[in-house]
Design goal:
By secondary structure, the chain is of the alpha/beta class. The protein has 3 domains: about 130 residues, no CATH class; about 140 residues, no CATH class; about 120 residues, no CATH class. The protein is built from 7 helices and 24 strands. The protein has an 8-stranded mixed β-sheet with strand order 6-4-3-1-9-13-14-16. The longest helix has 27 residues. The two termini are about 20 Å apart. This is Neutral/alkaline non-lysosomal ceramidase N-terminal domain-containing protein.
């Protein structure tokens, strides 16, 4: 369903939007893979993609990184505010969550996350520099724009919390909850030329995890397809939806730690490209069907953030590479960017399907996109009912039952309501 267009006025000037894309592929792969076997080579490059939007009063920035996770982004958000003047609370940084790429940033106290190496902290500073460069480029390229949104569907993801062999494990659970929606936000200039496309989908990009190669995985394949379909005239940002309980239908298919042979790796990459193509092609179809109307949009922008200290619990039966500092509380970070009737809701963990459904059902906005691992990654965030089962998202959740779900839904809607005028 498209957003509504209105006529700009001196009090409410037209929206301005710019986008940029920067290669962040590390040349030295030493100690950069926080999980699984070390990187041995580069299969495909990884990128940073950024969008800057301004309504004449409020400026916001959205950054998507082809990384497994971005930890506490407070330092770089402060730097962006100091150097570029974009308000700290108006910046949303997320990672595509490809498991075949490095992580950046520090682990917040109490978070269940993959600890970085000294090498990853050096790489972090390089990525921070790239963020500043991308935002400068996006701001310089900004032009009067209009915006619309739509929703499609792709059956690439599947619930991964399966009951096998007398216990809960990661697998394929076709009967479990799964959000198949491909949510799209399209920005174009007043002549109809594309600027950026925001793609939101719920899946772990783990198709090629275990190959020992750096890759943007299916998220990168989807974005490449979208950008190619628009002759590279736009930047496509992948944002992770309710990924906490969702895996791809096809991955390497080997036991954890097994080393694939060349044929097995080749099949995994074919699966990566195919699944990325399915999501990307649906995003293109949806984007082409969005009717944004003629003329400029006088779209108001609102942004805000909230940090809530919630009771912490230790993880159980999690990967050895995950670290958790014993603390009484863990910070849940919420962020909203509202562009007209489009609400981007950022949450600093891997949110499960049911929380996203509850948020959308309660949201008064035409389009609500939940973005996981926004401005931090503290671990999985399970809905309250899920705690009745010892599933992966519960074992990896650092928050005591009964606190996260309400805090997310009520917190996001309260932040968004502050911008309703």
């Amino acid at each position: 369903m498209p957003t509504t267009s209105t006529t700009p006025s001196p009090e409410h000037p037209a929206l301005r939007v710019g986008a940029a894309k920067v290669d962040i592929t590390p040349q030295d792969l030493t100690a950069l893979h926080p999980m699984g076997r070390p990187f041995e080579r580069i299969h495909d490059p990884i990128h940073l993609r950024a969008v800057v939007a301004h309504d004449g009063t409020t400026e916001v920035a959205l950054i998507s990184l082809d990384l497994v996770e971005a930890g506490d982004m407070t330092p770089v958000r402060r730097r962006i505010e100091d150097e570029l003047g974009i308000a700290f609370a108006h910046i949303l940084i997320t990672a595509t969550h490809t498991h075949s790429a490095p992580r950046i940033g520090e682990v917040s106290p109490g978070a269940l996350a993959h600890a970085g190496s000294p090498e990853s902290l050096v790489y972090t500073e390089r990525v921070y520099d790239a963020m500043l460069a991308a935002l400068r480029s996006a701001r310089a390229a900004a032009r009067p724009a209009r915006v619309g949104a739509g929703v499609g569907s792709a059956d690439v993801n599947v619930n991964r919390e399966a009951y096998l062999g007398g216990g809960w494990t990661l697998g394929v659970n076709p009967d479990g909850p799964s959000d198949k929606a491909v949510r799209v936000v399209r920005f174009e200039d007043l002549e109809g030329r594309p600027i950026a496309l925001l793609l939101n989908y719920s899946v772990h990009p783990t198709s090629v995890l275990g190959t020992g190669e750096l890759s943007a995985d299916l998220a990168g394949a989807a974005c490449r397809h979208v950008e190619e379909c628009f002759d590279d005239a736009l930047v496509c940002l992948w944002t992770p939806g309710t990924i906490g309980d969702q895996g791809p239908r096809i991955d390497l298919g080997l036991p954890w730690g097994a080393v694939p042979d060349a044929r097995q790796s080749a099949r995994a990459y074919r699966a990566m490209e195919a699944q990325g193509l399915m999501v990307g092609a649906e995003a293109v179809r949806v984007a082409e069907g969005i009717a944004v109307g003629a003329g400029a949009h006088a779209v108001r922008i609102h942004a805000g953030q909230r940090e809530v200290a919630l009771p912490a619990k230790p993880g159980s039966d999690v990967m050895e590479s995950m670290r958790q500092e014993p603390t009484e509380t863990v910070p849940l970070r919420l962020a909203v960017i509202r562009i007209g009737e489009i609400l981007l809701a950022g949450v600093s963990g891997e949110v499960v399907t049911e929380i996203g459904r509850r948020l959308r059902a309660a949201s008064p906005f035409t389009h609500t996109l939940l973005i996981s691992i926004a401005n931090d990654r503290i671990g999985y965030i399970a809905d309250d009912a899920r705690f009745d089962r010892p599933v992966h998202s519960v074992r990896g959740c650092p928050i005591v039952r009964g606190h996260a779900e309400d805090s997310i839904v009520e917190g996001v809607l309260a932040l968004a309501a502050e911008g309703v005028r």
